[in-house]
Amino acid sequence: MRAVQTREQPQAVLPRRHILDLNDFTREEIETVFRTTDGMKEILTRQIKKVPTLRGKTVLTLFYEASTRTRVSFEQAGKILGADVINLTTSTSSVVKGESLVDTGRTLQAVRADVIVIRHASAGAPYLLAQHLQCSVVNAGDGAHAHPTQALLDLYTIREKLGRIEGLKVAIVGDILYSRVARSNLWGLSTMGARVVLCGPPPLLPAGFPPPADAVVAGGPALPPVTVETDVDRALDGADVVMALRIQHERMKGGLLPSMTEYARRYQVTEERMARAKPGALVLHPGPMNEGVEISPDVAHGTQSVIQEQVTNGVAVRMALLYLLCAREA
Ligand code: CP
User: How far apart are CA 105 and CA 198, in angstroms?
Assistant: First the structure.
């Protein structure tokens, strides 16, 4: 595998085979992803954005759930780096004949996939695959649990635009209960020294949330320190970054929100509400957006919005991750 030519320091490798969540990522690992992404962004600016770095490697995307940004950006990332990219559509695969997740993974490994990128409706599905396979597994979103590559591109975008993450106030507003983006961001932002405020109506906050500071899960902290707020104006007060989240209707069991009009009235990120944030505060959204519900169109497309940059950075971050994972084997 050829090293990527960048203006930065030589890249380290990540001390991990899989990317499953950010809860065990160190600050140094996240910095390594940032440095590698800087080099990848340079490749994206070239007239001919194609390098042979991952020639001979195979990236396989296995999406059991709908996706636009994540699947396309992994495909684009792999192709720019010269890898062969195979997209398995589960609706036309042997999954519909009842093949199990592990058997599907073993089959893909047997065709010599180096990296399997999986999205699944069940939390933990990528972990199960990782336990049974020797190739790298990347979690592209598992149920309401984690979406680490989205969080890494969010972190990178914040650091690129504001020059730092340490000490920033980041308000994440919307459906926290079902948001894998919020969970992975909470870990990543906290590791990088940001102060996170999660905000939503009580039915969209996890029960018993936040857990006591000394709560542990499997030997580690249940969650990093976090402030929970049900008043959006207070959450946005003095914020450096505001991240709006979509209502995840596809995961919601029962009518937790009786009126979307009322929800939008109380929780929509609007120009008026953004006036409470710091001047120059960034607006992020992982997409897909429901404009007029969690975010107003003028904010979504306004000068503070970095939503399109998030998508572009998603390609660069995923290039970096594919490179770092494959570099382990080189
Ligand atoms: N942010 C995100 O995961 O978008 P997609 O569902 O389009 O991949």
Answer: 35
Cα separation, 313 vs 73, whole angstroms: 9
Residue 3 pLDDT > 70: no
Distance 130 CA to ligand 1 centre (A): 22
**CB-defined site of ligand 1, < 6 Å:** 67-70, 141, 150, 286-288
Contact 195, 170 (CB under 8 A): yes
How much is the average pLDDT of 188-206? Answer: 94
Of 156, 129, 160, 116, which is closest to residue 22 (Cα–Cα)? 156
pLDDT given at position 267: 96
- Give the Å distance between the CA of 240 and the centre of ligand 1: 24
Probe residue for ligand 1, chosen from 62, 63, 69 as the CB with the greatest number of ligand atoms within 8 Å: 69
Q: Taking the domains of the chain in order of start, what are their residue ranges?
A: 27-146+311-327, 148-307
The atom of ligand 1 lying closest to the CA of 314 is 1
Q: Which atom of ligand 1 is nearest to the CA of 147?
A: 3
Query: For residue 141, which atom of ligand 1 is closest to its CA?
Result: 3
Q: What is the pTM of this model?
A: 0.93
* 263-306 tens-digit pLDDT: 999 999 999 999 999 999 999 999 999 999 999 999 999 999 99
More confident residue, 286 or 96: 286
Instruction: Taking residues 86-109, report their average pLDDT.
Output: 90
Copy the structure tokens of residue 191. 């590791």
Superfamily of domain 148-307: Aspartate/ornithine carbamoyltransferase (3.40.50.1370)
Q: Whose CA is nearest to atom 6 of ligand 1?
A: 67
Query: Has domain 27-146+311-327 been given CATH number 1.10.260.100?
Result: no
Q: How confident is the model at residue 11 (pLDDT cuts 50, 70, 90)?
A: low
pLDDT of residue 8: 44
Give Cα separations from 112 to 44, 92, 97, 139, 153 (angstroms).
28, 20, 23, 19, 28
Return the ligand 1 atom nearest residue 73 CA. 8
User: Residue 330 C-alpha to ligand 1 middle, in angstroms?
Assistant: 30
